[in-house]
User: Fold this.
Amino acid sequence: MSHSPDITIVLAHFNDGEHVIDAVRSVYGQTHKNIELLLVDDCSTDGSAETARSIVEQDPRGRFLSLDVNSGGVGGPRSRGLEEARGDYVLFLDSDDTLDRHACKNLLHEAETSDADIVMARTRRFEIEAQRWKGWHDKLYVSREYYESIEDNPELSIDTIVVAKLYKVEFLRKNSIQFPTDIHYEDLVFSAKAFMNASGISVIPQSAYVWNIYPNEVRKSITNQRDSIKNLIYRLEALTRVEKAVDCSKNPGLFSRLQLKILRHDARLYLNDIVSHDDELALEILKVLKPFLLKVSPEAYAQLDVPERFLYGAALMLRPDIVRDAFTMINKRATWIPPLEPDVESSTYRWHSESTNELSTEPLCGALLSVDKSDVESTPWFQVEWYHEVREIQVNSGILSVRGRTFDPGAKLSALSSPNLSLRIFSRGKNKFSKILKCENVVYDGQWVLWDALITVPANWPAVDVDKIGIRPRISNQLTSREGHLVIPTSIKIPKKRLFNRGLINRIEAYRYRVYRTVDGTMGVRRLKSGTKRILVRRIISPVSKYRVIKDSVFDRPVKTNSLRWKTIYSLLRMLPLDSDSTLFESHMGTSTSDSPGVISSTLASHYPNHKQNWSIAQSKIIDGDYNSVTRHSAKYLYALARSRYLVDNQSLPSYFVKRKSQIYLQLWHGIPLKRMGLDEPDFADASMAKKRELVKKASYWDYLTVPNPYFETTFVPAFGYKNELLKYGSPRNDILAKLDNSMADNFRIMLGLPRDRKIVLYAPTFRANSRNSKRAIKLELDLEGWIDDLGDDCILLIRAHYLNKISIHPKFAGKIVDVSGIDDISSLFAVSDLLITDYSSVMFDYCTLDRPILIYAYDYENYVNDERGTYFSLEEFSPGLIVKDQQSLHKAVLERLTVDLDKDERHKFSQRFAGFEDGDSADRTVERVWG
Assistant:
């Protein structure tokens, strides 16, 4: 080669003739051509070195090198390649992996643009046996980023593999960064030294590397040989060298993150395996780990969740049995499992106190196995991952009887107002069914809640080929619910008797089931295989039960609503007589049973108890309570939509809905608008007349529209061209707020498990789009650590995301910051809160009913108001409270307003202009007008 290559690719090889050809081809197939390939063979013994040499030397850009002595790992070949590299940059490749086609092009472009010492790209893992792709630290590679040093984002250091990273050769040589050749896990040492010395680190979202993962029994790499004690010693030696190399005074962020990585990743790899190891080998692993774990910083242990702390406490006790208990806690995602008892001498609960008393000489162990009483007792019940355990299983006459118990160390459930304990049984797979069975004989016995349940397999399940049935314990009250796992201790005997579904034509047709313990120790029910004779009999008699199959399963499953068959069926159903004594309710497109439709439903039931009510429920939504529900977009839903005389909604019914002449449609819109809507939206300015007419036509279906105030009447009503009757009674959902007194507010606090002696702040932002993945949690623009530091002692923060968004709050904030997004009825959250923080959400209008402080946290105000859609008024000109745009100002404003109501005058002006008057009788007046 007459000129220097831009990139040298170092390919380490040993005895891998089967895969090295693909690796080399991926190098020569790069779209960036000015590269050099150095294939370094580590004294292969199977003849594959000649295969590698022949393919490398087919291209003048490649050189074949060989070590004189086998190094025993990839450190030797990589170091040799680094010595020989002529490129400005170096990229590492293993012989059983490949480079993405544009890897060199993308990495080099970023390196030349940013002049970074390291450029990091995404790695994709491919499981050979399962033939599926998996990510690798994908959260690090969301977008292009540049950092001056690793201290700007220490999180990057968790990606310790050296592949998919482009290193500046001059930088590596200047800082004498090399691979150690006398140990395995050399990547750990190399990466740590590179990160701590780098002046400029770039991250790109593109993929650069394909990491092929082979079944262990086929190909066992150094990194997946965790069952070897010698291998553990290798890893600990590498980690010890990393600790010595990283100066915690110069790189405190890097040092701290690598310490946490030891606990979250390195040690966990071996502790995970203890679950399946015998006690002798497990104890040997713990003895090797313990001296190293004792050297990990207390700050790293402090960042662990309670189950993780318990895990390491058990490891330091050298107790494999308690380590397995901790994994039960982790794998079941239980917040606490027994034994967890209060310590009379301190304000803590101690896990396995009988064992920790023996280790009083190990302060770290005792601290890890303790949890503050406040953490146990102040965590709201619906934030707890409950531990449910089977006490006894019996099968009599085909019916399953389960005696169980729920661990409640803080006595939260006994303090609740009438909690409901139930079991939800459900089918898994394509044909989804769900049924909630109430538990009986509930007894509060110290730290346990005892209960019984009878389970009968539903008759229609075999008709849809259900092989496995799940069982989930469920705790609920009027506001929310919480599900968990049902654990079967190994001491519980599982009966071999069979269950069978009842109500079938005869026992020959019936499918048989049996209780079993899943691989993770929970309870399940699975269908037994049928014999040939039974299958033949079913084929003969199946037409007799065909009607039952359709009636019980098909009618309540969502189907494609744009098919000709669907439209034809709907047209025929609309010819049937209306049921004049029936109402179909829908709230937030079937995702809720609250808001104004929920209030109207309960009011209607009290006025007209014999009136039939059906609720539209989305397929994924599970509801508690005695509702007659139909799955949205199912045949049953279509039937109710076509035949119900009354329809109640707070958003919009499906686009295929066609109103019948005698149907009465009540629209209870879910909020007062700030942003322009309907015909006022810019999209409609240039829209066709047909599109505008369609919008007005859909609104014309509404016979009644609730109007909370004059502002709503002058904005929302003309925006939809609405001409029918206006119900100027206020908002039914706000009736409870208008009538709220201290006793009612206290009752809501009890139902939510919130202390009476703490101030409550509610943060309820509007909908936020997640452009990357709508199913992922959105990023909260709140520094929760900072909130705890500034306000954690003064108040509890409740966070309620928009119903179309999801959020994630770390368990370490439990009891101080609470995710209340699962609570449908936001009125209960208004009732318990002393102050509301929002942004542009319509909740600001409703909260004015309580006349309590409101803060507008508008960190993206300019982006919001400059959006093409526009707003009906300027929030800066008319606001119910102070507008803050950064978190420091937010914290200061909250502290001030929890003491003094500084914005009362402005809020009253806002309320009079935009929120209107709520007298608390909206629901009664609405029901009398529509149904009276």
About this structure: The mean pLDDT is 88. DSSP finds 33 helices and 38 strands in the chain. The first strand starts at residue 7 and ends at 13.
